[in-house]
Amino acid sequence: MTSANAESGLRKFRFGAGGEGNRDEGGARKFVKLAQTAEEYGFDTFAVPDHLGNQVGPLAALGALSQATDKIRLATSVLANGYRHPALLAKEATTIDVLSKGRLELGIGAGWMKEEFDKAGIEFESPGARIRRLDESLTILDGLLRGEEVNFDGEFYTIKGLVGSPRPRQGPRPPIAVGGGGPKMLALAAKHADIISVATGTTAEGKLRLSDMTMEKTIERVDRIRQAAGDRFAEIELNWTIATIVVTDDREATAEMALAALDQGYPPNIAMDVKLSVEDILQSPYLAFGSFEQIAEQIREVRRRTTMSYVGIFPTQMDAFAPVIPLLKGE
């Protein structure tokens, strides 16, 4: 932290780019180039999502990126816990950490895309069961990622005298990131995670709640993490992902256009559970409208009000956001 940040308890900014790859060989090559471009732009992390559809496999991709990049940290955002046994995941993760010379950030969640589970013939459990399963996985991963012997007898997993190997390059283990928007997931993240991605909540149909995109609701979620984490809160890095970036010289007009689109039902994955104002849109941590300098100032304000400091960007937004990084780097 800078001295000013240390006095205020704020962390320095970090910036994470995301990547997706197509199923064909050319798409996979483009994926590697995307990570290299993110490194050139000055992003701190390049994260690979975990879906069974039209994209590369995250663990194999990170193995390739460990050799194709030099400095950028490599992350998963986030692995669906139901797809992999934690004992097998731990071995893959520590191998990637060794290959990358200590650059892995392991992001993992409960899994939320029922359609993908169904297509693969993997049981999509109730929300409560998926959260309990993730709790057990995180407990097991914590030990195995440290190279320790783990004995565990739970509802979902049983581990008998398994020693984590290879030992990771990072000590005591690679950082674990958990994302969530609902109270139970945020409490679980507060219990286990080094990095928490503060996401919007979803409806039973899987739509994002528009109300959760406001600054006020975001502060409420951070406060919930603070209460659940207790003394651990100071050790946790908070992340959020900006969904839309529009570089413009008229922030207000852009916000009005966004409101008009929402009124017309676009994008369709948003649940219109509240009526927002232009000010709500301009203050939302998840939307960034304005000049590069205005976007940088907005991000400073988000950190000041929420303590979130780790900024995530979607793949399609990487070029648009790149000029903002030099304005904030090191702060």
UniProtKB/TrEMBL annotation:
<keyword id="KW-0285">Flavoprotein</keyword>
<keyword id="KW-0503">Monooxygenase</keyword>
<dbReference type="InterPro" id="IPR036661">
    <property type="entry name" value="Luciferase-like_sf"/>
</dbReference>
<dbReference type="InterPro" id="IPR050172">
    <property type="entry name" value="SsuD_RutA_monooxygenase"/>
</dbReference>
<keyword id="KW-0560">Oxidoreductase</keyword>
<dbReference type="Pfam" id="PF00296">
    <property type="entry name" value="Bac_luciferase"/>
</dbReference>
<feature type="domain" description="Luciferase-like">
    <location>
        <begin position="22"/>
        <end position="304"/>
    </location>
</feature>
<protein>
    <submittedName>
        <fullName>LLM class F420-dependent oxidoreductase</fullName>
    </submittedName>
</protein>
<dbReference type="InterPro" id="IPR019923">
    <property type="entry name" value="Lucif-like_OxRdtase_MSMEG_2516"/>
</dbReference>
<dbReference type="InterPro" id="IPR011251">
    <property type="entry name" value="Luciferase-like_dom"/>
</dbReference>
<keyword id="KW-0288">FMN</keyword>
